[in-house]
Amino acid sequence: MIAEGVENEEKWLAAGIAGLQQNAFYMHRALDSNNLRDALKYSAQMLSELRTSKLSPHKYYELYMRAFDELRKLEMFFKEEARRGCSIIDLYELVQHAGNILPRLYLLCTVGSVYIKSKEAPAKDVLKDLVEMCRGIQHPVRGLFLRSYLSQVSRDKLPDIGSEYEGDADTVVDAVEFVLQNFTEMNKLWVRMQHQGPAREKEKREKERSELRDLVGKNLHVLSQIEGVDLDMYKDTVLPRVVNCKDEIAQFYLMDCIIQVFPDEYHLQTLEILLGACPQLQPSVDIKTVLSRLMERLSNYAASSAEVLPEFLQVEAFSKLNNAIGKSRGFYDALSLRLSLLKCCFPVKSFPYPNLYKFQVIEAQVDMPIFGAVTLYSSLLTFTLHVHPDRLDYADQVLGACVKKLSSKGKLDDSKATKQIVALLSAPLEKYNDIVTALKLSNYPRVMEYLDLETNKIMATVIIQSIMKNNTHISTADKVEALFELMTGLIKDLDGAEEEVDEDDFKDEQNSVARLIQMLYNDDQEQMFQIICTVKKHIMTGGPRRLPFTVPPLVFSSLKLVRRLQGSQDQEENPFADESSTSPKKIFQLLNQTIEALLIVPAPELALRLYLQCAEAANDCDLEPVAYEFFTQAYILYEEEVSDSKAQVTALHLIIGTLQRMHVFGVENRDTLTHKATGYSAKLLKKPDQCRAVYSCAHLFWVDDQDNMKDGERVLICLKRALRIANAAQQMSNAARGNTGSVSLFVEILNKYLYFYEKGNPQITVAAIQSLIELITTEMQSDNSASDPGADAFLASTLRYLQFQKQKGGAIGEKYEAIKV
């Protein structure tokens, strides 16, 4: 049925275009031969095609545009005729003899345009005659397009100030009256469309009206371009005529047009009238969009220049908007009661307090969804931040009103509303570029309470991004407490909620929290310790999934404070220091508790690394018992929790590397820890791993900058043990694969021999090095040796190093001279 209607409409349009083109052809021929009567005859027949009622507005527009193009050519002909001496007044009367009224009026408008341009009659008289004549067409679609044509041909011929058609002192009034009268008549036609036809086609008619609304709105654009329309005329003449409409579609569109086309300063000065009109709009009108766009324009106007801000203060713009939008429910209830009592005594038209109507914007929209209300509050807050950036109490007042509106709804489940809440909460961050300022708003966290978990996370991420972007300095424990309360959705699961979260998204969220922790800083050591304690309190509630991300930055932030304390040496210089004051010992106690939390994850490798970092910091503070305790915890983790062979290798090398840098231990404690490390090395699963760990242990007995930690004999023992393990690895390879495998382990051990030989270890002799070189050479030449280009290159590089050392001459050259390559 619908397809058949569309097909028929296409046929009707094609027939109309064909008839129009045919008559246009004859009209052109008449124009070329300067035959005025035939030109008028065929132009009238051409315009008769516009009398159709079968086309939808969209299709009618196609036909109209073709006719419009032809009328422009006819207008040029009329101008030429007037230039050749033809009386334009006679022509104006002649076209009125056309048989049908619609072609007659189109021709009349066309000749009228030329008539005004000839200046043979005042423009206001011709325009008044034309706008009155057009009342002869009352069909909505045909009448709208006719009046649109009139508006189009007359827009550059209005008797405006400075125009060539300007007349007497009231010329601007005449121009405005013409446009307003044409607008009013078009609006009536537009509204009439809604009430024609059966009720079942209501949606179709509304769609058609939507397609035609720009024809009506163009009049307002023309009005806004008239130079003589000043604020007083706009306020007293234009605005009351435009807003005086009861149709819901027209109300929304016309209010939106007014906001878009007229200057911002006009809106500011007539704010009370606009707000007074809002509660009188039909309940179905999208008032939130109207007011939001109004506030958006005013916000941009305020942001354009600081010089315009006094205008906002003068008209008390915030107070008026806040009264219209931001008041609480209790306010409205009380106000409604007072209004009811007053209206009992006064008829509406003589009501003595008309301004009170403006307070009923939200009340008038009883079915306004929460999304609409939040949108209004978001726009009002943006307006407030632009106009009154120094008045945080105003911004907090808006947020408080939003909280009261949300209090009856509980957690929001409307995605549109939550999106607007994010926009609302992001506005202070974007304006001040400082979360610290936003934290001063007492209602800011209260609004966040109404967000669901996912949106809470989004908002928390926005806050963190703002802090990162602006490098915001958060320097007190109270501010950190408030900040972490806002970011609850990222730090812990809300209300035990279990949600399926994408692993990559989760990592990004937690990494952002980790970066935030690193940015919390205060020069005062006591304050910094309080910040650390506050962060610890919050992240400990994060659960096993979050701790591996949040504990490390807290540990390293604490270690920075330890080194600051150790550098200042306040504790040593002040024997009367308060026991409650911050000290490295107190921080290490907190760190021990913090790292223990990783065991429930479990994350033993991470915990082991952090224990070793803490041990190294305790070493710098000369706290031997603390350092020993951290090493003990690391060893316990290695023995009981680290079971993967690769993880064991990595952890053991970390232990050896950290222990080698420790200088705080006494002989007994160091021997104990060193013995344990060498024992672990010999127990690794793979022989190559054993070999590398054992020769690494040799460094534990020879520390360059500490004379009391140079035991050459034990170094040699480690290296010989490593050789035995490497030899055993070759034998196992020969038994399993039929070849002795690579000699890379022997080359590595050779490099260790050379290192300790160069450092002056008396137990490392030339003979031992020479013997090892010969062993490697023999193994590489053996038939059972597997080819290994990496090992060959490593050996060649080592031998080149020996040659280089020999060539240096002096003591170093003499030292290496005995080694034969």
Write out key terms for the chains shown.
single chain, 821 residues, mainly alpha, 0% strand, transport, cytoplasm
- Helix content bin: over 70%
Measured between the Cα atoms of the first and last residue, the distance is 100 Å
Give the class from helix and strand content and strand pairing: mainly alpha
Strand content: under 5%
Tally of helical segments: 41
Write the layout of secondary structure elements.
Layout: H1 2-32, H2 36-48, H3 57-83, H4 88-94, H5 101-118, H6 123-133, H7 140-154, H8 171-192, H9 202-225, H10 231-243, H11 248-261, H12 264-269, H13 271-277, H14 287-304, H15 309-315, H16 317-326, H17 329-345, H18 361-364, H19 370-387, H20 392-406, H21 415-432, H22 435-439, H23 444-448, H24 453-470, H25 477-486, H26 488-491, H27 503-519, H28 525-539, H29 547-568, H30 570-573, H31 584-596, H32 604-620, H33 624-640, H34 645-661, H35 667-682, H36 687-697, H37 712-737, H38 744-758, H39 766-781, H40 789-807, H41 810-817
Helix pairs in contact: 1-2, 1-3, 2-5, 3-5, 4-5, 5-6, 5-7, 6-8, 7-8, 7-9, 8-9, 9-11, 11-14, 14-19, 16-19, 19-20, 19-21, 21-24, 24-27, 25-28, 27-29, 28-29, 29-31, 29-32, 31-32, 32-33, 32-34, 33-34, 34-35, 34-36, 35-36, 36-37, 36-38, 37-38, 38-39, 40-41
Please give a structural write-up.
By secondary structure, the protein is mostly helical. Among the domains are: 1-120; 122-262. 72% of the residues lie in helices and 0% in strands. The protein is built from 41 helices and no strands. Helix 2 packs across helix 5, helix 29 runs antiparallel to helix 31 and helix 40 packs across helix 41 (810-817). The longest helix has 31 residues, at 2-32. The radius of gyration is 44 Å and the shape is elongated. The termini are far apart.
